[in-house]
Amino acid sequence: MVIDTPPDFRDQVLTFGVTRVDAVFLTHIHADHIFGFDDLRRFCYMQDAVIPVYGSPATIEGMREKFRYVIDESIWKHSAPRVQFNAVAPTDRVAVAELEVQPVEVPHGPMAIYGFIIRHAGKSVGYVPDCSDLDSIAIEQFQSVDVMILDALREAPHPTHLCLPQAVDLLKQIGASQSYITHLCHDLEHEATQARLPTGIDVPYDGLQLTV
């Protein structure tokens, strides 16, 4: 299962040996989250299968516009299989093998986008790479997770992202056993940032594997 297909999607799957994708979940349609999408189609051919792609109605509408050639039958009819776009609401639950994925609507500046809760065998992970705030409903939903991953762009406030102090405050309210900050920009040096984070909140790294 993949969340978002950023511009370096191809490099990531090659680097970490990803040989199969069963489903894709999209947070929103900003370029840094979707512009590696075309490389997903290679998995369709390798697996000889249609790969489902899930997102909010607005996200799926945007994907249909930006990647029309992926779903236009007059274009792909001689090169199926292909991806399948599916709009899901925050009240929906999507099953991927033994996983259950729940969308959680969060603000990204003026946009309403999705974070996700992934559940399996009584354990769960919350993932919100982009947001500018979490309301009380979202906080309550994420308070059930064992691991929480949350946007923390930089030290100074930003109109569409959480800054580090905001993220730390929200992660304390959520209270997961283990938390990570993500979407860091170059203003936050990793080791220096890690040194001043509270216990249980960490800076992740490429290739990090979690056992929940």
What do these coordinates show?
The longest helix is centred in the last third of the chain and has 11 residues, at 164-174. It contains 9 helices and 11 strands. The mean pLDDT is 95. The protein has a 7-stranded mixed beta sheet with strand order 5-6-7-8-9-10-11. A 4-stranded parallel beta sheet has the order 1-2-3-4. It is 28% helix and 26% strand. With 212 residues, the protein is α/β, with parallel strands linked by helices.
Helix content: 25-40%
CATH level-two architecture of the largest domain: 4-Layer Sandwich
Strand order of the largest sheet: 5-6-7-8-9-10-11
Counting DSSP H or I runs of 4 or more residues, the number of helices is 9
Radius of gyration: 17 Å
Gap between N and C termini: 16 Å
Mean of residue pLDDT?
95
Main sheet properties: 7 strands, mixed
What is the CATH topology descriptor of the largest domain?
Metallo-beta-lactamase, Chain A
Give me the strand/helix succession.
EHEHHEHHHEEEEEHEHEHE
CATH homologous superfamily classification of the largest domain: Ribonuclease Z/Hydroxyacylglutathione hydrolase-like
Q: Regions with pLDDT < 50 over 5+ consecutive residues?
A: none
Structural class: alpha/beta
Q: What's the number of structural domains?
A: 2
User: Into which percentage range does the β-strand content fall?
Assistant: 25-35%
CATH class of the largest domain: Alpha Beta
Q: Which descriptor suits the 3D outline?
A: globular
Q: Tell me how many strands there are.
A: 11
Keywords, please?
four-stranded parallel β-sheet; alpha/beta; 212 residues; seven-stranded mixed β-sheet; 2 domains; Metallo-beta-lactamase, Chain A; 11 strands; 9 helices
